[in-house]
Amino acid sequence: MCPGKSPREPLTPPAPPSRQRPSRRDSFARCLLCESPIADTPDAAAGPGAPPPLPPRRAPRILRRPLPPFPPWPAPPPGPHPRTFRPAVHASPRHRFASMCRIAGAPPRILPPLLLMVLAALQQAPIKATCEEGTLCKTGFPEDVYNAVISRGVHKGQPLLNVRFRSCEESRKVNFESSAPSEFRVSEDGVVYAARSFQISPGLTEFLLYANDKETQEKWQVAVKLALEPEDSVKEQKKMEDIVFPRHPNKHIGHLRRQKRDWVIPPINLPENSRGPFPQELVRIRSDRDKSLSLRYSVTGPGADQPPTGIFIINPISGQLSVTKPLDREQIASFHLRAHAVDVNGNQVENPIDIVINVIDMNDNRPEFLHQVWNGSVPEGSKPGTYVMTVTAIDADDPNQLNGMLRYRILSQAPSTPSPSMFTINNETGDIITVAAGLDREKVQQYTLIIQATDMEGNPTYGLSNTATAVITVTDVNDNPPEFTAMIFYGEVPENRVDVTVANLTVTDKDQPHTPAWNAMYRMTGGDPTGRFTINTDPNSNDGLVTVVKPIDFETNRMFVLTVAAENQVPLAKGIQHPPQSTATVSITVIDVNESPIFVPVTKLVRQEEGLLAGKVLTSFTAQDPDRYMQQTTLRYSKLSDPANWLKIDSINGQVTTIGVLDRESPHVKNNMYNATFLASDNGIPPMSGTGTLQIYLLDINDNAPRVDPQEATTCQTLQPNATNITAIDDDIDPNAGPFAFELPHHPSSVRNNWTIIRISGDQAQLALRIKYLEAGIYDVPIIITDSGNPPKSSTSILKVKVCQCDLNGDCTDADRIVGAGLGTGAIIAILLCIIILLVLVLLFVVWMKRRDKERQAKQLLIDPEDDVRDNILKYDEEGGGEEDQDYDLSQLQQPDTIEPDAIKPVGIRRLDERPIHAEPQYPVRSAAPHPGDIGDFINEGLKAADNDPTAPPYDSLLVFDYEGSGSTAGSLSSLNSSSSGGEQDYDYLNDWGPRFKKLADMYGGGDD
């Protein structure tokens, strides 16, 4: 912006949209060709030491044509010059440009020639210059080394410092890189931050930063050195610090230029569990514009106006930031706040700045084991260095600080045999391993270790500790082979017995019971070549059970001597051999018993023609006794099974004879085979018996004549292709069966006149009409069938043929079917029974209804059905009622002076049908009965009122009254006129009241009856 012009007025008219943006050289030339010497304007704040304003001067004309080159500019005289270039820090942009444009020792009047020289130089080569800071622009890092002091614990994403890169061209794009990208990274605006959380080692940490130009591939580098802050830095932070809002980018030469941030606010480190006093002052936030404006400060973010709220507060006037209570790093490790500065009208004066408050960890948490009791195991006989288990403890403190760095150690071991230090623990990982040999489960089965975890890297003076218990079980290995308790075992077994245990083999094993190293397996190494024995292991006792699996014959083998070896389910440990005690001998004696007789053969087959008559010898079926070494016994034979009862056997010699005719066609014969079972018994102790089966294969003879099948057929009454197929069957088999011969008999002659038969195969023939028409009906057609036996057999079979009228398809029509249709005898009987049952049910229902009506009529009290003169009769099942249901006052039936109102019990106190527990009140007996005329008038009035009541029933119904309680003015019906006898009253007038009161007249006017 040229002096003398308004800050908002451009030096030249704005270029059209299609024109490109002016270059730096044109802008610089424009600044030189101002109308007056460069001076500060009233709205620019000149800093101290700024030169005084220059008097106004007319600007020279701008040369439109190129100028010849000028000679080199003479060097200034040596020595200090009275007017050296010293730009003011707080001067306005125009003032700084005026200072830059002044040349040492040159008065203002020489500016026009100087301008001409500058214009000539601009035509020769581009000038890399800037109006800012008055020096020639040099691209790169302004510093050779950047130094920063940080705390030891660095968090991921924590900003460390800001490096500045100077670019003389706005279009230049630069990428930043770090020589240690795994630990440090650089953002686009030059902020160096931590790539991960780590600990800074003592001394200096150095690395390089690189800036790469994407277009020109130029590269610049700068060194960064990080130093660890001293331990008392936290205490020094308690001193008041000021955080000033960074200045905004300044306006420059008619347009805004983007400027990178010059610095990053370092995080505030605040120790946790501070004791105050609170509120505790942290820093003071201020803006450099607070001298000219009245500002208000505020902070936002978690811990201020967001949950947890109220931890950090700020004085809106002074900008003093304070903490109100102790912090806990284990809950929140850092707070990210934003500070704001606004004027009294709420307008934003400064851009918000980020404030990071890191909570410094203190050693306020003890290590905690994940489990209070840890269980592990190790095989016995393990070598030193064998891994056992891992114990783990956690510390809520910062694991990257000493407060959270744990170390483990073993405090005690129980028992301490065979060595007090059988195990050791890795102090960093918590891995427990063996360090001594001699683990023997048979001696020590379990070890108990007390493990201690201490933070501060195990420092016993400053670290906090906690303990846990590690229980290590010594697991068993197969280092003890099974040993038999005896060298010889004895047993005995009866002959022919199977699945019986004959001997128990016992062993001892020092290994842990019911484990693969203890479980024994037995195998026979000799003495049983045929596999008659097997040895199973009892899972509870580990004994070997010798069992017989095949029958043993005493007459063949009387004794067995077995050799048995025992071993475990898993092999023995290395270096352990089987002792001689792992092998034993088993002697088994076979006991002779009385065996069952055996038929020889057990199943005997006999071939015999059927038709053998009774009393014929069929065969001889005998048995043998296998007991050769026992006393000779006698065998007896008997029949056990004979389904057709055709056979018998001689009890002494076993001769089988027939007692019936053998018939192959019997239902007891299956596939020409007949089976009979016989029994042979001895007289031994105990007596035994054996069975044998006699199979008789019956040979067929021609003893059965053939017959026709089926025995009924249907044909049409007209001569047409409508023959009936018939089949001949014979119970005999070939060659005594088919082929069969079919013919019709000669008598009666009508058979051959009406029918004809033709054989179509060996067992089938066709029966058809010989005449053209035959009346419909059922005809018995005899057919003679002869088989092919030698000699042949023949029979005459009657075939019932139904002749009917047929349709075009040869089927009987519906008319014929209807004629032939009818109900059978069973159906007719069933229908009649159903009708009778229905009639009986109807009669029973009618009788029940009449009896029910009679019972209802018998319940009428005053009016008989024949005396009722009204047409409509309605029955209302009203059960009971009291005087409250009556429309008349019963007190007229009793003397009023006998009523005692005070003795009447209120209604609703008890049920009306309940007799009172206490004594009922006694009323005085009336001295005289009411006049009969009063009663008649009362009843007449009641009847008249009832007849005129539209809601009343058509006639009075019977009401059943339960006990109504004491205190009733009506009393009981039996107490009416109880003071005088019936003979003292004259009730003859009741006969004059008509048929409605006939019952009442009979009760009172009937005399002595």
Automatic annotation (TrEMBL):
Keyword set includes Calcium: yes
Compositionally biased intervals (Low complexity): 39-48, 966-983
Superkingdom, natural source: Eukaryota
Alphabetized UniProt keyword annotations: Calcium, Cell adhesion, Cell junction, Cell membrane, Cleavage on pair of basic residues, Glycoprotein, Membrane, Metal-binding, Repeat, Signal, Transmembrane, Transmembrane helix
Signal peptide residues on this chain, from the entry's feature table: none
PROSITE patterns: CADHERIN_1, CADHERIN_2
Domain Cadherin: 262-369, 370-484, 485-599, 600-708, 726-818
Localisation: Cell junction, Adherens junction; Cell junction, Desmosome; Cell membrane, Sarcolemma; Cell membrane
Membrane-spanning intervals of the chain: 827-849
InterPro entries: Cadherin (IPR039808), Cadherin-like_dom (IPR002126), Cadherin-like_sf (IPR015919), Cadherin_CS (IPR020894), Cadherin_pro_dom (IPR014868), Cadherin_Y-type_LIR (IPR000233), Catenin-bd_sf (IPR027397)
Any one Pfam family match given in the protein's UniProt record, by short name: CADH_Y-type_LIR
Chain intervals with Pro residues compositional bias: 10-19, 66-81
GO BP term, pick one: homeostasis of number of cells
Keyword Zinc-finger: no
PANTHER family registered for this protein in UniProt: CADHERIN-2, CADHERIN-23
Function description: Cadherins are calcium-dependent cell adhesion proteins.
Name by which UniProt lists this protein: Cadherin 2
